[in-house]
Amino acid sequence: MDREIDHAEALLAGLLERRSVSPKRLCAPGPGLDKLDLILQAALRAPDHGALQPWRVIEFRADERDALANCLEQEKLRRDPLASDKDLQRAREHALRPPVLLGFVVMPRERCKVPLREQWLAAGAALGNLLNAAHLLGFGAIMLSGERCFDTVLLRQLRVQPHESLAGFISIGSIAQAAPPARPVLPAQVWSCWIPELPPSSAAPAQENHDADGGHPGT
């Protein structure tokens, strides 16, 4: 029993070390198709009210990255017509740098009994599982969003439907340079214990006697 507990704690220790790793700190190789399949299986095991699977991923493979880079460069110019060459190159690098690049799309089911906020929570849980699985397989990963995720032209180019939302782009790869230590956060910062409200007093406040016409006695 103790051995099983030690094994479980070792697995949890690995999860507690997870950090988002910038694409600048990633290098090839990224996960192959077999590892990507495992990562997505983990995402599919996330809590999901109604088993709606209100999310999907888009893989941007290596031979399509130049086309994606062109799309991101044009999006930057639409947002900032005076963007510098350095800014445009940085926009292109969002598409070209990561060893593996995925788009994470939330696709809520609108005519459904499950509230939309719960569907978004389910999508977030799947994203968390995806990033955790990448970490436990030895890769670094991060999701980056930004204003480009709201550009209607880019969304159409990526075939994101009007009822869907592009949450962000997930970069996954081997860790070439470790991320800086995470800022420590204590569980007490997000932990509270509920205390029920006290029931109202059963003793009614004393009331003065009133005569029939509402006046005080003796008036």
Give your account of this protein's structure.
By secondary structure, this protein is of the alpha+beta class. It has a single domain (21-177), classed as 3-Layer(aba) Sandwich (NADH Oxidase), CATH 3.40.109.10. It contains six helices and five strands; from the N terminus they run αβαβααβαβαβ. Strands 1, 2, 3, 4 and 5 form a five-stranded antiparallel β-sheet that branches. Helix 2 runs antiparallel to helix 5 (116-136) and helix 3 (65-79) runs antiparallel to helix 4. The longest helix is centred in the middle third of the chain and has 21 residues, at 116-136. The mean pLDDT is 91.
Features:
6 helices, 5 strands, alpha+beta, 219 residues, NADH Oxidase, 37% helix, five-stranded antiparallel β-sheet
Could you give a short description of this structure?
By secondary structure, the chain is α+β, with helices and mostly antiparallel strands. The chain has six helices and five strands.
How many strand segments?
5
Structural class, please? alpha+beta
Number of domains: 1
- Low-confidence region ranges: none
The top-level CATH class is Alpha Beta
Largest sheet: 5 strands, antiparallel
How far apart, in Å, are the first and last alpha carbons?
Answer: 83 Å
Helices, by number, come to 6
Order of helices and strands: HEHEHHEHEHE
CATH superfamily: NADH Oxidase
Q: Mean pLDDT, rounded to whole units?
A: 91
CATH topology: NADH Oxidase
